[in-house]
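re: ur msg from earlier - yeah i can do the D-glutamic acid complex, just paste it... oh wait u already did. ok heres what im feeding in:
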Amino acid sequence: MEKSQNTLPIGFFDSGVGGLSVLARFKKILPKENIIYFGDTVHLPYGNKTKEELIEYAKNILNFMKNKGVKAVVIACNTSSAQAYDTIKNLFSFPIYPIIQTCAKSVANSGISRIGVFATEATVKSGKYTEELKKCNPNIIVKEMASKNWVGIVEKNSKNLERDIKNIKTELEEMLSFKPEKIILGCTHYPFLMNEFEKYVSKDLFIDPSIIFADVIKQDLERNNLLNTSNSSAKEQFFVTSKPEDFVKNAEIFYKVQNQPILL
Ligand code: DGL
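and the outut:
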């Protein structure tokens, strides 16, 4: 890629605000990058969609990103990485980084032998975490568990409702009975519930893959000479497919969305 292309934006997408947990981490280590964030809020939640639907959404978003002239796309969504990435990975000329496949190697090689994964129903159904972790460490024991409605709790910011407090506690207890050494937060919405998890267990028990993800992407962009080295201030643009006001409101405790999202 030519030098001038280094200043092109990097696209991020998710069903809603979840991918902001990845973007926040990414901006911490790569503050100079220009960003386009796509929240596919009209299709929320992705976790109960079929493979065919998820492939169609991913293709449309990647075409949108292509028209915007991105230099790379980050799939800041486990569900899309699990169900759509394999089908769409060769359809575009820019690098596409899926969260599960990019992070599994480093988790599998970290010496953990018993690991839990909280994810959406569609991610668990794909078995992608188990597949990718076992590819690197065949002896690792994995329990994948679909958490009911955690995405809804984050998107509606309803974690203080008694019903949702109970929901989080019950599902956490079920996972703890498996006695995992670590638990992967296999949905980008879940790190936003860390304060709730911490009421019952230490936060050290959890792996937020976005930390590994951002580091690996940085290394890859560096290797491909794609990092933005210009000194002009980085731009961020947000696009959503429904309810831009809700997106900003739900995001606000986690990420300062500077520009009003554009409704597509
Ligand atoms: N945040 C997404 C993920 O990582 C999608 C959640 C959803 O919309 O169900 O899987």
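cool cool. DSSP finds twelve helices and ten strands in the chain. ping me if u need the other ligands too
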